[in-house]
Design a protein that fits this description.
Layout (H helix, E strand, L loop, with lengths): L6 E2 L4 E4 L9 H16 L2 E6 L4 H15 L3 H4 L21 E6 L5 H11 L5 H28 L6 H6 L1 E10 L9 E6 L5 E6 L5 E4 L5 E3 L6 E6 L1 H6 L9 E4 L7 E10 L2 E2 L17 E2 H8 L11 H5 L2
Parallel strand pairs: 1-9, 2-3
Antiparallel strand pairs: 3-10, 4-5, 5-12, 6-11, 7-10, 7-12, 8-9, 8-11, 13-14
Helix pairs in contact: 1-5, 2-5, 4-5
């Protein structure tokens, strides 16, 4: 269990401010190098993203509290044919966790479709907040992606790659454990996304496993976002990028942990750039269907505590 492991002090922290967001500048290039190093060595880093205001922070978490207070039968309307995209909750093995998903969360249509399920009469404050959050965080995701593509010398694939991306916004709540109840908020797993960006209220619990087997706690602040590579990014990079195992372990506090995760998925087939394979680093993965990877992971007999990219599309 992560809560019993030695916790290291902190994850790499990289500042994303207006000054270093201009491609081609010295600060962009130096930030890109730090991003690539963090993703290769840790599979993640903490981005301090000052564009996100404290007012927006308060608004989105207040909206989350209201949403999770809705009756279970209302939240259960959030269904999807894609695994893990709809409502998850009331599960005996992870009783502390409850979550919902907004598919196509960077589009007005996607957010309104979700809103109409839960609030048929409308909830403009929720839809405005969710859409603004998703759009702002998708900008960060695309910046990080561009830095990696440029650093690896495969920038020519960037535009078509971004054009095939869609975003799932998962809205998550972890309540504090009661007496004699498990403190495991979610089990150890890697994400199946290309990239995940997580933001949480000031109740910690997320832990990430290093390549050396140590657990690092994500300690959040109002302007901090955890940028994490998923199995699709690992495969696309021909194994250069690390997809970290992670879990949520809740301490015995009275406050619940609310978090938002923006997950990038890609329609169609993801090709591994031929430039990322050479005699010293031969091709390790085949081209793959991203949602096929997700569906493979959702099978009952597939182990969840290892990366499934190798089993699904490894050579």
């Amino acid at each position: 269990m992560g809560s019993q492991s030695r916790l290291l002090p902190e994850l790499p922290v990289i500042e994303f401010s207006q000054e270093n967001l201009n491609p081609g500048t010295d600060l962009w290039i130096s930030t890109s190098k730090r991003v690539v190093f963090a993703l290769e060595e840790y599979g993640c880093f903490v981005a301090t993203y000052s564009d996100f205001t404290s007012e927006a922070e308060d608004e989105i978490f207040h909206a989350l509290e209201e949403m999770f207070d809705l009756p279970t039968e209302v939240k259960s309307r959030n269904t999807s044919e894609k695994p893990y995209f709809g409502y998850v909750g009331q599960h005996p093995s992870i009783p502390l966790n409850e979550s919902l998903g907004i598919d196509n969360a960077t589009t007005l249509e996607g957010v309104q479709s979700f809103m109409n399920l839960l609030w048929p009469a409308g909830n403009k404050r929720f839809s405005d907040g969710a859409l603004a959050f998703s759009k702002k965080v998708s900008e960060l995701e695309q910046m990080v992606k561009r830095m990696v593509f440029e650093s690896y010398g495969v920038k020519k694939y960037y535009d078509s790659h971004v054009a095939s991306a869609t975003y799932l916004l998962r809205l998550m709540k972890y309540r504090a454990p009661e007496m004699n109840e498990t403190n495991q908020g979610c089990d150890v797993h890697t994400d199946k996304s290309f990239m995940t960006i997580l933001h949480q209220n000031q109740v910690d619990g997320l832990e990430l496993k290093t390549k050396d087997g140590d657990w690092i706690a994500f300690e959040s602040s109002p302007t901090s976002f955890l940028v994490m590579a998923g199995d699709a990014f690992l495969a696309w990079s021909n194994g250069r990028i690390h997809a970290p195992l992670h879990q949520v372990v809740m301490k015995e506090k009275k406050s619940p942990r609310y978090s938002l995760g923006l997950f990038a998925f890609h329609s169609g087939i993801i090709e591994i750039p031929p430039e990322l394979a050479d005699p010293e680093n031969p091709l390790k993965f085949k081209a793959f269907d991203h949602y096929g990877l997700l569906r493979y992971f959702s099978k009952d007999d597939v182990p969840k505590d290892v990366s499934s990219a190798q089993a699904y599309c490894g050579i």
